[in-house]
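STRUCTURE REQUEST FORM
Protein name: Electron transfer flavoprotein subunit beta
Source organism: Pseudothauera lacus
Requested output: structure tokens
Priority: standard
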Amino acid sequence: MKILVPVKRVVDYNVKVRVKSDGTGVDIANVKMSMNPFDEIAVEEAVRLKEAGVATEVVAVSCGVAACQETLRAAMAIGADRGILVDTDAELQPLAVAKLLKALCEKEGPQAVICGKQAIDDDANQTGQMLAALMGWPQATFASKVALADGKATVTREIDGGLETLELSLPAVITTDLRLNEPRYATLPNIMKAKKKPLDTLTPDALGVDVAPRLTTLSVAEPPKRSAGERVADVAQLMDKLKNVAKVI
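Status: completed
Returned output:
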């Protein structure tokens, strides 16, 4: 069984991002970049399935600039067998990424695609669902537990009312939630081994995919600063304030 795991290069979650002075986007110059945390969880889950003898190969895929090779090497240090980079300088939106992944799925023939539920830079939460729709595959989102056996995937997912368990026929698309697992730290020997693992580079044109943006960002602005709190003398005054605020909202 082959598992395809998309990974995205994003601004590290510890970095406080800044908006460009012209409002055209986020300033990423000289900013630490790393693998999207939800994608890291997806890689860990795929590697665990391989270690359990369920999967035979884990292929990490990234779409973007050449620097995404670092993200792929990080995935291979965790345990992915090889990497594929779709090299492009274009602004990639969720639909374009889903189309690229569809082309790679048709080329690689995986039995499962495990990806993060969303990226922390745009929080779109769309790529996995769009890929499933384009491929005509079943999907399970926000997975907190995954089991693959006998051509089926049993996925437990968190919903507002508690837990929901789905059974899917493979091939399928699964998106990971925070509580699925805790990614391991890559050891130095595995980091060194990852440098020798195969990494193929393709282009959108080679895959026959048009990645031109369908949406235009008009402006980007920081959220307004939180206003200072206000002291009240007693509970009665507090209730009065709350009622007035509720009326305004």
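Reviewer notes: The mean pLDDT is 91. The two ends are 53 Å apart (CA to CA).
Form closed.
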